[in-house]
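does this look right to u?? adenosine-5'-diphosphate version
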Amino acid sequence: MDSTMMDYPLTITTILRYGTTIFGDKEVVTCGGDESSRRRGYAAVGERAARLANALRELGVDGDQRVGTFMWNNAEHLEAYLAIPSMGAVLHTLNLRLAADQVGYIATHAADYAVIVDASLIPLFAKVLPLAQTIKHVIVSGAADAAALGTLEGPGHEVHSYESLLAAAAGSFDWPELDERSAAAMCYTSGTTGLPKGVAYSHRSSYLHSMAACTVNGLGVGEHDRIMPIVPQFHANAWGLPYAAMMSGADLVMPDRFMIPSVIVNLIETEKVTVGAGVPTIWQGVLAFLRASGGDISSLRTLICGGSALPESVMRAYRDEFGLTMTHAWGMTELSPLGSIAREPAGVTGEAVWPYRASQGRLFCGVEGRLSSDDGQILPSDGKAVGELECRGPWITGSYYQDSAPEKFHDGWLRTGDVGTLDAEGFVRLTDRAKDVIKSGGEWISSMELENLIMAHPAVAEAAVIGVPDEKWGERPLAAVVRAPGADPVTPDELRAYLSERIPRWQLPERWAFIDEVPKTSVGKFQKTTLRDRYASGSLEVTTLGALPH
Ligand code: ADP
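got this back:
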């Protein structure tokens, strides 16, 4: 029997219309650094999105051309998020932290036709442009002097001013009816292994993902919230927060290029931010700043944290020192990105909350998960069996853009590359990424667990653990530690003694290195490849303690 329900497409256009009319008096605030913040109501954002669509149409965007953005988190980027998909084109957020040749590769692979660039990023983009031949129009947002603009000149493309284009365009646009399955936006994975791969989100997947983000069991954002996405809009849709804000009527507080702890704390104070979202290194930096310089973060309801494992010690510190609950979430670009979110089940109290909060969390309704063994057998979801997490669902990519990558899929499920357990209540507990796994004498050692334990030591600022070849055991963990500034210089023996109270003896690292900083990826995650290379080339100074019996 057919249903009687309307076949109404799920599109970004609906989010645009709803957010900019029903919540027309809500606002997006863009940090100005030393200058005052810029404020723009959602009604004005809607009108400017229409102007942008008209302007892009004038420049020849009349179908599914890719329109790139090379921008920080700000009001104009929000306008691009709304206008480009709603006019039927494809928003392509370019990661400005990548090397110029990588951005050039990505823009060319996606065949970007036009790109909107923040004026402050012209020096970076000028290096990309000669490597991205498909770009016909460069649109500069913000004030730029003639000299800077001159660096963008070249054959094959025109340079425009975003504000001039908008000023000359009409303030209403006849948004087309779109197929919900058509591409709305693209994002490339950061390519920690191999070349970056393109994920093309559909209108439908983005709509469903935004709805899931708004649910109470999801990110739970609503009209009472002022959300500050520190996670960049060029990285996995800023975790879906811009669309979730438009859908739910939450205000947005955008850091623009000022993503440093002092500015973040000042924004929280002055803009009365209720929800912040960023990777662990951001909130660790903010914590250190608050401890050293103070600050009023009492407006916060929660800090959402994902992108890499959030150490329990950080969560406890925010709870103990500021009465604030952090919300740990797991996801990936391929999942739009939300996959699971960590809150203790109803009725769990006291110390019992921590194993839940520190886990990667419970899978969203719409994200199905299972574990697979090395040889492709499906393992039980019993909280004990360890395997690679595989997912499927309506906002999970089923392929990559012009890249078949069969090794990334298993019978229609996405192989996440993350390794851990899944329990009957749907909680994911990751122990490793497939490529970070340490196998010692045939047994797994969790680099994440070791890192979290070492980082909980008061004299440690950061720690990354990698597996290194070992004659006897195949592989053993090496801990690269950044000492906390001002603390007594902790020794490998002390750290190992500290760990020995917490984990089995055979897992204790005997190799220790002290480093100035853990190398990070473009989005602030630990870049263990760099550490492995340094170890392999002998440029990492390693202290080896006497081995303990296995
Ligand atoms: P990349 O894989 O290139 O870093 P993503 O930004 O899509 O790109 O990262 C997704 C990966 O980040 C996940 O597969 C996982 O390894 C890691 N990750 C994300 N959130 C968490 C988390 N809460 N805990 C542990 N790892 C996480």
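Residues 438-544 form a domain with the GMP Synthetase; Chain A, domain 3 fold (CATH 3.30.300.30). idk if thats expected tbh
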